Amino acid sequence: SQAAAGLCAWVVNMNRYHAIRCEVKPKEEKLAEAQEKLARSKSESKKAQDKVLELKAKLTALVKQFDEAEEDTRANEAKAKKTQEKANLAERLVGGLSSERSRWATTIDDIEKKSTLLIGDVLLSAAFVSYVGPFSKPFRELILEKDWRPDIEERKIPHTPNLDIVMKILTSEAEVAGWQNEELKSDRLSTENGSLVCNCTRWPLLIDPQLQGINWIRTREKERLQVCQTTQKGYLQVVTKCLNEGLPCLIEKIDENLDPILEPVLGRMVIKRENRLYMTLGDKQTTYDPNFRLYLQTRLSNPHYKPELHAQATLINFMVTPEGLEDQLLAVVVNKERPDLEESRVTLLRSMNQMTIDLENCEEGLLQALAAATGDILENVKLVENLETTKRKSAEIARSMVEAREMQLDISVNRKHYTSVAVRGSLLFFQIDQLAKINHMYQYSLGAYMVIFIKALARAPQPEEGGLAERCELLVESTTKTIFAFCSRGLFERHKLIFSALLCFTILLRDGEIDRSHLNYLLRGPKKFGIDRPEGVSTWLPEANWAAVQALKEVEGTNPPFSQLEKDLEESNRWQKWCEMERPEDRDEGRLPTDWKNLKDFQRLLVLRALRPDRLTVGLTNFVAASIGKFYVEDKAVPLNVSFEDS
């Protein structure tokens, strides 16, 4: 039946259920256990995750704290490093500038003192630039020391006593060294002239017959210099070009009367129109560049210019001085005799001049760098390094300067042996330069003189024993004879004895063998009238000679003194016999009476000048022959080939 079938099916199903249940139940139990474990695991995992999150949060905080600590550490390290670097830079800066401290302190004190004396110093400097240019060195010193300084002292104008206004106000050692590298001579007058050229506001007019100044200007301005002459065709185009382009212009060989067309240039008559400068030159108007510089040069030794030109230009006397010429001639002699020594000297001088310039630049650069520094100076590494480099260079230059001065001293000692030759050469040039006062045709340029001087050095024979002193004596003799012969060939016969006598007197004066007051009496022949002649003298001594004796009484420095001559003339008849001699100038035949025979040869000429002036020419001839040689008073024909060689 269906019921039984259904029941059977139920039993079967229940049996199956039981079998499945028996199989599933352990699994359910395991599932429940696993779920329980899972729940516990999830709970523990959540706790662990919460712990992890907590630890992560702590880690993040610790990492942040660590980073902050590390950042602080780095900042502190950087700050410590920067502080150390500053300390090092400060130490280097202090060490580098420690030697400058005392000098700067002294300089500050000097500047503070000078600031109160600046009025008088600048007043003297301005007067020096404005007025002393045309004068010679002795007259410049006379004006400055005898006129200007006493005047400002009397007016109580504050000034620095005994100030060297050239080296302390107008220029500096470094600038002078640069001029000397540009071939400006090293004597004092040339240095003064250089400062005048560089400081005058009016155009400089160089009185330069020996071309000393013009050579310096040419070297100084180099290729930019435009040279012209007023006698040259188209010279105005050269001047116009210089005005337009701001070039230096040299107008050389000007006369006492300058071309009126240059008046606007000399007077700086500048017109400003539409922000441009113009100047009228002739009938044309040309642009004017403020960089334009004008140099004027004349070869006249004693020019007479109009007052207007003095107001428009600064006259500067560049005529060579005895000291300056001695230096030049000494260089020529040493270059001829010891070319190695002269080459070393020239190289050394250029090196010393350059070192002086570099040292000045280093000191100025040091101060300028410190003054221009901005911000914290201890953070400017480049500045400190530059200061150290400059300081090292300055110290090296200072050491080199000491060594160079020692070398210069050694060279000077060796060159000094030839000084006598240079002194004689300078003496000869200035002696022949005076011949133009006798006759205007007797004019000799320094260039021509140098040629003859060098030829005279070449003609000097070598000494037999080879001694340097003997060689110098032969050089002096050769130069004197050669130059005398060269000059005397062009003299009129009546002027030759004048030349030889003046040359002799100048040499003896230089050597200190005659007194200048004695020479003045011989040359001037003064007379003192108004004193009556005694009866014993009036019969044989003319009144003019008696007046000359009265003037001779005032000449001192003889033995016996000339003050006794008047009395001796009255008491001794030997003087009458001496005056009546045919050749009283002869030392043997015309011996002076009594103790007067002890007079020196030159002093005998003074007696001859007073008592027997008619025999003075012969007496001078004998004196020159005895003093410097018969060569200078002999009249010999000059072979044509010798004249040709000296031409």
Count of extended strands: 8
User: How do the strands line up in the largest sheet?
Assistant: 2-3-7-1-8
What is the beta-strand fraction? 5-15%
Terminal residue distance: 178 Å
Given the helix and strand composition, which structural class is it? Answer: alpha/beta
Topology:
Blueprint lengths: L1 H130 L5 H18 L10 H6 L2 H9 L6 H12 L3 E5 L4 H10 L4 E4 L5 H11 L2 E5 L10 H4 L3 E4 L2 E6 L2 E4 L5 E6 L8 H6 E5 L4 H16 L1 H34 L8 H35 L3 H15 L12 H14 L8 H21 L4 H19 L4 H9 L10 H4 L4 H10 L12 H7 L2 H6 L21 H11 L4 H13 L11 H7 L1
Parallel strand pairs: 1-7, 1-8, 2-3, 3-7
Antiparallel strand pairs: 4-5, 5-6
Helix pairs in contact: 1-12, 4-11, 10-11, 10-13, 10-14, 11-12, 13-15, 13-16, 14-15, 16-23, 19-22, 22-23
Task: Jot down its keywords.
alpha/beta; 5-stranded parallel beta sheet
Folded structure, characterized:
- α7 (235-245) links the parallel β2 and β3 (248-252).
- A 5-stranded parallel beta sheet has the order 2-3-7-1-8, sandwiched between helices. It has a 3-stranded antiparallel beta sheet with strand order 4-5-6.
- With 647 residues, it is α/β, with parallel strands linked by helices.
- The chain has 24 helices and 8 strands.
- The protein has helices at 2-131, 137-154, 165-170, 173-181, 188-199, 212-221, 235-245, 263-266, 307-312, 322-337, 339-372, 381-415, 419-433, 446-459, 468-488, 493-511, 516-524, 535-538, 543-552, 565-571, 574-579, 601-611, 616-628, 640-646; strands at residues 203-207, 226-229, 248-252, 270-273, 276-281, 284-287, 293-298, 313-317.
- 66% of the residues lie in helices and 6% in strands.
- α10 (322-337) crosses α11, α13 runs antiparallel to α16 (493-511) and α14 crosses α15.
- It starts with a helix and ends with a helix.
